[in-house]
Amino acid sequence: MVVALLLLVVVIGTVVFHFWSPWWWTPIASNWGYVDDTILITFWITGSVFVAVGLFMAYCVFRYRHQKGRQAAYEPENKKLEWWLTIGTTVGVAGMLTPGLFVWHQFVTVPDEATAIEAVGQQWQWTFRLPGKDGVLGTSDPRSISFENPFGLDPDDPNGQDDVLIEGDEVHLQLDKPVKVLLRSIDVLHDFYVPQFRAKMDMVPGMITYFWLTPTRTGTFEILCFELCGVGHYGMRGKVVVDEESDFQAWLQEQPTFAELYAQARGGTRDDVDLVLNEGESDVVEQGSVKAD
Amino acid sequence: MAYFVPTRVEEVAPAEVAEVELYHPKSWVTKYVFSQDAKVIAIQYAFTAIAIGLVALVLSWLMRLQLGFPDTFSFIGPESYLQFVTMHGMIMVIYLLTALFLGGFGNYLIPLMVGARDMVFPYVNMLSYWVYLLAVLVLVASFLVPGGPTGAGWTLYPPQAILSGTPGGQGAGIILMLVSLALFIVGFTMGGLNYVVTVLQARTRGMTLMRMPLTVWGIFVATILALLAFPALFVGAVMMTLDRILGTSFFMPVIVELGEQLEYGGGSPVLFQHLFWFFGHPEVYIVALPGFGIVSDLIATHARRNIFGYRMMVWAIVIIGGLSFVVWAHHMYVSGMNPYFGFFFATTTLIIAVPTAIKVYNWVLTLWRGNIHLTVPMLFAIAFIITFVNGGLTGLFLGNAVVDVPLSDTMFVVAHFHMVMGVAPILVIFGAIYHWYPKMTGRMLNNVLGQLHFWVTFLGAYAIYLPMHYLGLLGVPRRYYEIGETEFIPQSAETLNAFITVVALIVGFAQLVFLFNLVWSAFKGKLAGSNPWGATTLEWQTPETPPGHGNWGPTLPVVYRWAYDYSVPGAGQDFLPQNLPPDEVPGEGGQKGLSDVAAQPAE
After folding, report:
1. Residues B411, B478: contact at Cβ < 8 Å?
2. Which residues of B touch A123 (CB under 8 A)?
3. Distance in angstroms (rounded) separating the CA atoms of residues B469 and A5
4. DSSP secondary-structure letter at A138?
5. Contact (CB<8Å) B487/A85
6. Beta partners for residue A153, in sequence order
7. pLDDT over 80 (residue B343)
8. Taking CB atoms and an 8 Å cutoff, what residues of chain B touch A233?
9. ipTM, interface predicted TM-score of the complex
10. Residue burial A244-275, b: 16+ Cβ < 10 Å; e: rest
11. Separation CA B225–CA B214 (nearest Å)
């Protein structure tokens, strides 16, 4: 009796806790509402199973507890019942897998119109790179990383000259524009996650990984590292600011390019962009492109 | 002419082949130290596993102190925290759970339950324990070397595991961990061959595979999984050791560590993850399947009812075992592997839920229309069902690739695997110890202490891990020394962390009640007799309790029925031992020889 009651308390208590708990996901700031929806579907299906099994068990513990004269039934199997339970379970599982795979398909299919941005992870900080006016990120190689070239970009690649480099830990994204976040690590595994975005992917040294999202509200959101990367893992934080278009452009204009920083690091000023451009074998020269500030 | 129907079953010889001479120890050392008797080896495994498990329990208290009360305990720094996390995890999964289920329960129960005198390779079996002990000592040694033990997380992902930003990475810590794992695998291969071959070859006459108790099926299939899965961990450990010691680059790409180019290049960190999880996923079933088998027998015995759907239960164990090899990359959805793998692994992972659910239904259907004695083993079995259903269902969130994306590496994952692997199987272990202690010692464990231990452990563990899921939903990460300042995590989360810590300490200390009970009852416990629970399985039918060397006396038992003849209609008692000859089955009112109950279901 007591046991059955306590089982009931555990089952009902779990449901009550779920609905009354103040600890729930933080409000979403991206297009991945479908992920939240799939989680809700999963809660409904798994929650029903948990309640059904728990209540039935509490009932059995009460109803069939040992009493003088009770004899258990002898029934090695019941093929029909087992068959129906299998079918029901399969239907429930399909009910979760179907939306799940549908949304996964969206998750792995980057829209054509997405712009690129690169996040670089290293022990224990974030830096970022945007493709600049040509819309193409320059090639990179960790072997090229040096004091003058902390991003390891290829100085001979014209696509990289106008790449916007953000050496601090705060990056901006444009509201309502899909963006493919390319992920690079130069030392160990990291993971770029903004809980409000609901999308993440590990950063793997030796590979370029990615995920995509469309930010759907403005605000400042925290980046946390979500793959153990050593003692500084818990302190590896950054910020993403989602801006309206005009604010985003204003911010972008203020950021230096690879060409400027590279020139500056090699002893010139940021105005000495020509020095760099003329040194290389490239015959593509940006026309009045970057505003040296 | 008269038609003669014999009412007596013919005498059946116990074996067609003469028994192999069993090894007989001559001295105290060969009887109790370097023993080849599986029962002694089992107890050695159990003692060692529980001892190192208690170390891991203390490590968990230290972790919880830091999480519940950050900025309070200055002796717990970020490095130590990661070392506690890592060693706690590795010890619990491998050195406690795997060792206790396979080495402890496997060694004790398999020969007895199949009617054998011992394992088929007793000398190798003995060696397997000493290799396991050596592995444990090497692991403990890593606490004592400069730099301390590894803090790479129990998953030991490269490159960080062997680099200087991780505790033990550039010291002996990681090397000792990898060597210890390799030794463990060697020892468990030796043991595993014993368990598998004994089940296949040493069953006594009449003990067909489909008459074996589910405990044996669970441990048997788990051992097959271990023999096939551990090699992947072994090679991963060897390759990582080479990367660390010789500077090879199996898992190491070009790395610029804190400004310095290292001499690695061309390796793949994701390769390690595939190898690790190809082992790692079957590993969780190596822990779960023995638990499934044991809990089936606990429920059947204490509810006096045959396990519902025995045949499906066996198939479910086999299918789960097989499928467990094709789900591994559900641990890698955000690893950067080919995104299309997500479709395959999410599908296989959710398919494996079906045979698992069937097992749950069958456990509950065994309680239905049963005659439930709420003994301490039964209480633990019931608690297992609730916590396993909870933990298994949260697995469906994580297995569904896109749902895993926001939840991976959060406290939701930590809550899930603790509930399904830490709480549920541990509850089975407790239930199993309360159940078989009378067979091993001849005395019952104290019932009042058992009830106290049960309620604090079950309700406490549930109160620890249920709310933890919601921290994960919030976005609180795992393996974080402290949450620190964030905008999106409310102050109440820190209060919750403190609450969880307090409950964890209470549950931890409650285990002292259990340890005391184990020792006290060995001397003062109520005498149990040979079969206090009225169980049908062979281990309860030995001529001596505890069973003597050779288990069965001069003649091996002969088996006439499956393991679940409880409450058979028309029988004079509510259980029929597997080796009870049909002509000795008591009829209602006490007549012997009621031959219609001798007809057995299903082989």
Report:
1. yes
2. 165, 257-258
3. 25
4. P
5. no
6. A140
7. yes
8. 479-481
9. 0.91
10. eeeebeebbeebbbbbbbbbbeeeeebebbee
11. 16
